[in-house]
Amino acid sequence: MTQTLTPDLCVIGAGSAGLAVAAGAQQMGADTVLIEKHKMGGDCLNTGCVPSKALLAAGKAAQLDRLAAKYGVSYAPPRVDFAAVNRHVHDVIAGIAPHDSVERFEGLGVRVVQAAGAFDDPRTLSADGVRVRPRRFVLATGSTAAVPPIPGIERTPYLTNETVFDLTERPEHLIVLGGGPIGTELGQAFAHLGAKVSIVEMARLLPRDDADMVDVLRTQLRADGVELYEGARVTGMAAQGNGVAVDIARDGQAERLTGSHLLIAAGRKSTLDGLGLEAAGIACGTDGRLQLDQRLRTSNKRVFAAGDVAGGPQFTHVAGYHAGIVIKNALFRIPAKADHASVPQVTYTSPEIASVGLSETAARARHGDKVRPLTWPFADNDRARAERATDGLIRVVVDAKGRVLGAAIAGAHAGELIYPWILAVQRREKVGGIAQMIAPYPTFGEVSKRAAGSFYTPSLFSRRTRRIVRLLAKLG
What we know:
Elements: E1 3-5, E2 9-12, H1 16-27, E3 32-35, H2 42-46, H3 49-61, H4 64-68, H5 82-96, H6 102-108, E4 111-113, E5 118-121, E6 124-127, E7 130-132, E8 136-139, E9 143-145, E10 173-177, H7 181-192, E11 196-201, H8 211-223, E12 227-230, E13 233-240, E14 243-250, E15 253-259, E16 261-264, E17 268-270, H9 277-280, E18 303-305, H10 316-330, E19 345-347, E20 352-357, H11 360-367, E21 372-377, H12 382-386, E22 393-398, E23 404-411, H13 414-417, H14 419-426, H15 432-436, H16 446-453, H17 457-460, H18 463-474
Helix pairs in contact: 1-10, 3-5, 3-7
């Protein structure tokens, strides 16, 4: 028999966005149904943020012998048990999983339906014998790895972020297609764990990041033994023996790379297949993405979207932000709008790259010559000197009055150091507050104070200042 449910909210997808909406809505008094066809926790927990950071941590541990040599300390070369590394990754997932589990959400009062759901009409969704007719829907089905239509790919074995964490044996030679955050993070992690790694990128490494920040990472990747093929177009691929062969064209020259494994990290696409969007009156653009307004509503105003499926910045912290926007709109009828201008992003390589707001290039395109970049190198930071972590820099972009337009950091702890600049961009603050703060010495965080203070250097040490000082001296 078909059971009909009439909750306040029906959330489709139990990833970061869906879980945040469901937990928040239910605890605020909204009767909520949660539909999930696969694993609770979605991409972030099972195949994304959590396992990748666990793998990066293992890779960093495998570099202790090399890193310690900087300080005059010696260790025996490490022996990597890759099966044990795999167990470590999945143990981390298992440790976090209870927070995202069916049991926890049912304990909160959420009705969890573990099945695929599809719209029957603009107000009804069916999933495994359950019909749901809520006041509002939330699409939070996430994204999947985009697989480019490369000749031969259908006959070539390959990995994506959804399968790479199942490896229990270390790849001998991993070829990574894509030099974005996923490709660089996983490429470096496997290199640190002893695999030969080649990264192939059509543009340049991390094409959306400040080029000077990327230079810092590029230098380290090469020191790690990673082969970089930038500006390379993949023209074909095939299985070759127990491995793979990838044909590329670069600078007018053809080249063939052979490896044991192939990882596709060439972007993401929204997960929309099988949802019956047409029946629901939900429109997509020519690019296949949902058409949303600033309130994250689809063309069916009863249906909101949140997280990766919304087609904006694809980060877990954005999913959480979207959840707040949706709850304000769907439950409280507050016309809150999503604003991604102050969304930070971090690539968790060694060194890390973090940014928020406008890059220098984007700021100049918008504000012209009124833009001032404020740069400070890690080499001039005493804590970085003490820890032999001087490869890096911070660049803060401000307007003529010192208002912070954006910031980028490459170096140790960049993901933590970006915090004050997120607040500055979000609140449209000037650099004065950070320049005048008392920063504990010695800390990496002093790079922010130094960069901010450099805004005032030209006027502080100007001829005018020297004249004033001399005049006051004559007055006794």
